[in-house]
Amino acid sequence: MLSKLKQLQALYEDWVECDRCELSKTRTKVVFGSGNPEADILVVGEAPGPEEDFRGLPFVGKSGKTLGNFFNAARLDRDTDMFITNVVGCRPTMEVDDDRTGTRTIENRNPSKVECAACYPRLHQIIYIVDPLLIITLGRAAYKALTGKTATMEKCRGVMHTVTLPGIHTNIRYPLLPLFHPTFLDSTYNYRADGPWGKTATDFSLACDVIDHLREIYRGVTPPDRSPSADQQKEDEDED
User: Fold this and answer.
1) Nearest partner of 198 among 183, 213, 179, judged by Cα
2) How many angstroms separate the CA atoms of 135 and 177, rounded?
3) How far apart are CA 100 and CA 115, in angstroms?
4) 4-239: CATH superfamily
5) What is the pTM of this model?
6) pLDDT, tens only, 25-75
7) Pairing mode, if any, of strands 161-165 and 172-179?
8) Domain ranges of the chain
9) Over 36-64, what HEC string results?
10) How far is CA 240 from CA 134, 192, 218, 234, 236, in A?
């Protein structure tokens, strides 16, 4: 049987020149995914942005930096603890007229139902191959894509959900934790404990508790010490 890495490489080759939807006409690169194929955590975002489209990697722009800060605070390593992908592999864009300058710019937009449906086979195959212990979704679109539910992030975040996918012999169920999208966090300056940033920090703490518990049960791995290091504590104090 092929290793997970080789399976993902084969899947990538099948999708790198994808023309299954209209996004293929405007993209620069397909953003397939990155990280550890053997990871216990699968992170699913919505769609690539401009930096991701240019580099062909997920969450490498401003939102990726914000996400990385939460990873670091939670003592999670992006390269070893997770595999990261998006619902759609190509950047959805729209032209926007600036009434003030009279110019037209290219902006991000939410992927359409047709675009999401075209990319579902890729997303589902990634889930099957990585076979994570925990799925983390970022933003409402990713949550809806995997659960089919339309709840607001305020209502669905902070609690565990389940995503059920068809298997060969029976359905496969994965624990799923929805989080605010880092782009949304970057648009708000509410850093209070009861605001989006504080809630996301709490949600990452919950994600760590869940993955540590599942690893102990299914892998026999002793939970690590996730308390902040002296350097991290000093950095937090300096920021305050």
Assistant:
1) 179
2) 6
3) 32
4) Uracil-DNA glycosylase-like domain (3.40.470.10)
5) 0.92
6) 999 999 999 999 999 999 999 999 999 999 999 999 999 999 999 999 999
7) antiparallel
8) 4-239
9) CCCCCEEEEECCCCHHHHHHCCCCCCHHH
10) 32, 12, 39, 10, 6
